[in-house]
Write a structure and sequence with these properties.
37% of the residues lie in helices and 26% in strands. It is α+β, with helices and mostly antiparallel strands and 129 residues long. The strands form 2 sheets. A 6-stranded antiparallel sheet has the order 1-8-9-5-4-6. A 3-stranded antiparallel sheet has the order 2-3-7, with no helix packed on it.
Amino acid sequence: MFLGTFKPSVVGRGRIALPKKIREELKSKRVVLTIGFETCVFGFSEEAWNEVVRPELEKPFFSDAAARNMRRKMGMNAMIAALDSQGRVVVPDSMLLYAGIENNITLIGAGDHFELWDTNKWKSYAENL
């Protein structure tokens, strides 16, 4: 389970050093990244991603337009990214732009996934939780 709040290091444009606790929870050298519903980036282990999308993939494809649209949204915004030997992952520019992330990043654990936020946006959002 992804828990905690971290200030990961940013090495170059979009290269983020994931904290050891997060890497251990991934149990893999790969992570699924996608844009969040709020202005953040979601990170899932491949196993957790499969569990999250499974209910949507079980909905009727031909007779359910909303199900087709959800599949498209989930698929078009997601990608599998590899961690390098030092536990860093490159987050695509398009995701960083969506989330308004430059260099000041906060990573939070959210149970089945983690989230990357611009620190100022996270502080503002967290005040209203």
